[in-house]
Amino acid sequence: MNTPKRYLVTAALPYANGPLHIGHLAGAYLSSDIYCRFLRMQGKEVVFVCGSDEHGAAITIKAKKEGITPKEIVDKYHALFVDTFDKMGIKFDIYHRTSEPLHHETAQEFFKFLYDNQQFTEQESEQYFDVQANQFLADRYIMGTCPKCSNPNAYGDQCENCGSTLNPTELIDPRSTLSGEKPILKTTKHWYLPLNQHEVWLKEWLENGNLEGKHHHDPEEWKAHVLGQCKSWLDGGLQPRAMTRDLEWGVDVPKSIPNSEGKKLYVWLDAPIGYISATKQWAINQGNPDLWKKYWQDEETSLIHFIGKDNIVFHCLIFPIILKAHGDYNLPINVPANQFLNLEGQKISTSRNWAVWVHEYLQDFEGMQDVLRYNMIKNMPEQRDSEFTWKNFQETNNNELVNNIANFVNRVIVLINKYYGGKVPDFDPNVEFTSGSNNTESYYDVELIDLYDKVQEMSDALYHFDFRGGLKSLMEISSIGNSLLQNNEPWKTIKTDPDLTAIVLNLALQIVAVLRVCSRPFMPFTSDKLSNLLNLPNLEEKGELQEIMELLANGGCLIEPNHQINEANHLFVRIPDEVIEQQIAKLHTNNPVEKNINFEPLKPTISFDDFAKLDLRTGKIIEAKKVSGAKNY
RNA sequence: GGCGAGGUAGCUCAGCUGGUUAGAGCGUACGAUUCAUAAUCGUAAGGUCGGGGGUUCAAGCCCCCCCCUCGCUACCA
């Protein structure tokens, strides 16, 4: 594929039945935000869409439990999402919602189009139905005794005790999780998308990146775990999948279709189409309602989906099939799914309240969005699961943000204010000094080119969705700055060799100016602080990265001599132990499982001599036999 | 159970189609330095690359067996 003219970037629609936690950020929102900011700074045309996913049984159930309407639930979380994203600096071009009439219309039109073009087959099946709740039950909402291990609390789709995959009709003594009643089997009819009929082109598209005989994308650019899972499904053979559900809260199957009464669109014909309706709303907001077509239907637009690993099959198989079945839409050129973020050694869990809630973080750490962003980027689960710990959060803040970057910037700003009254020093380019990379060469020949290389390195990493790598390059730029100061000691030479001081501090300030631009995709708030320190306007994310790369390549200054900068002000503050201890304590006290554990009081600590009296030995089990009459556990 | 991804230094991770003494950041130790938020700079120590077997002149990388973690397993979203 040639260089695309424009990009359409989507981030997975968060499900509106609970607040956002750090796992959401690490999974899809930070990476997509960085990528879009980066593309804009490269002068690219980008539209970044997202929105709340507000339908489905889980929301209905939650509403019933809380005695309110589904609408009240989704309104509450939608508002919270909008606020949380905004405060975290996740900057969508449009944040839409699937409950909007525009979305319902869009999804229905899409469904109708597929229906009219005979893309569906109709099939009858028997499903469990909860008579008391008067609704069909998804497998997940049926519990019963596992036929394999006798666990009385197996779900209709899976037994969490023995891990086996189940069919709800296999359960012994099934019961509805809604009413607790025994469900009855009832016949229902749905529209199925024959995924199996799409296998051939899908395989060619995924494995070789070819679509309709044309090169579409480079599969080498896709992550191994993404392709691996897709191939695994393809190798197993695809089956027709129902595109409608018997639900009460969702998008209606269009009334013009016979027997559509009570039927709702399946979430995967609802949520991803939310990307399309969001783009439509964006186009309307731009005053050009047809503009969305350029982003979805023009082949010169690159579509990229940012998601978590749990969504791979839907974004790489099912949604592409839906789009292709329609025929007028682009398929994604990449789906850079992240893996999962764990928290303090355990999986993040909403139900167990084992999470760091982003809205709470924003309250507890006011003005410290970039500290969280930095830590999460550094530990982003790009290729495998990763882990967030408060201790590591403190360490990255104190050792890297405070000690490395904030300290470097502060040194430069303080020195220039002290020696030159805050005016950028002019300099003689022929003065020799030791560079940050330990070369004794001149300003233009080496130092600016070194910087250029680092910026280039960062760009390359970001183009390839290597956000951790990009962040590393950013920090290396700051380290080059610290070395430059250390190698030349301008605080000494100001008395002995002021020309040397001038060139070194000028260059150090150019590095600060590079940081102002390069930090932007990762830490936008910090970029603004740097702009303020340098007395420059905040970045607008319109090609600034491209501009500084051209400047550096041509030996140009990012900040002219005699420009007046501002007084020093710390970019980051140290986080003391108490703050971290409080957060860890909060995590544990809010955990309902741990709260209910009553430990016996610990026995008093013994002396080492007493310990030494113990005779502890290890043994190796050589043989194990079944004892007759013993129960199987 | 099946399939997929992962397992590399105390911690977090790089290691392209197999090619010399396996790298980085943080932490640790020592030295230098004092403009700076006790920050910075340099040097060093630290690894049977999950385990076992095999192919090869050569294996972190390829093949086989096993162990561990996570995901998917088709009506959760």
CATH level 4 superfamily of one domain: Isoleucyl-tRNA Synthetase, Domain 1
Q: Order of strands side by side in the largest beta sheet?
A: 3-2-1-15
Radius of gyration using CA atoms only = 29 Å
Tally of strands: 20
**How does the overall form come out from the CA principal axes?**
globular
Overview of the structural elements:
A hairpin with a 4-residue loop joins β4 (121-130) and β5 (135-136). α7 (273-285) packs antiparallel against α8. Residues 595-601 and 619-633 have low confidence and may be disordered. This protein starts with 5 loop residues before the first strand and ends in a 20-residue tail after the last helix. The chain is 45% helix and 13% strand. Strands 3-2-1-15 form a four-stranded parallel beta sheet. Among the domains are: 1-98 and 271-306 and 339-388, 3-Layer(aba) Sandwich (Rossmann fold), CATH 3.40.50; 390-598, Isoleucyl-tRNA Synthetase, Domain 1. By secondary structure, it is an alpha+beta fold. It is globular, with a radius of gyration of 29 Å.
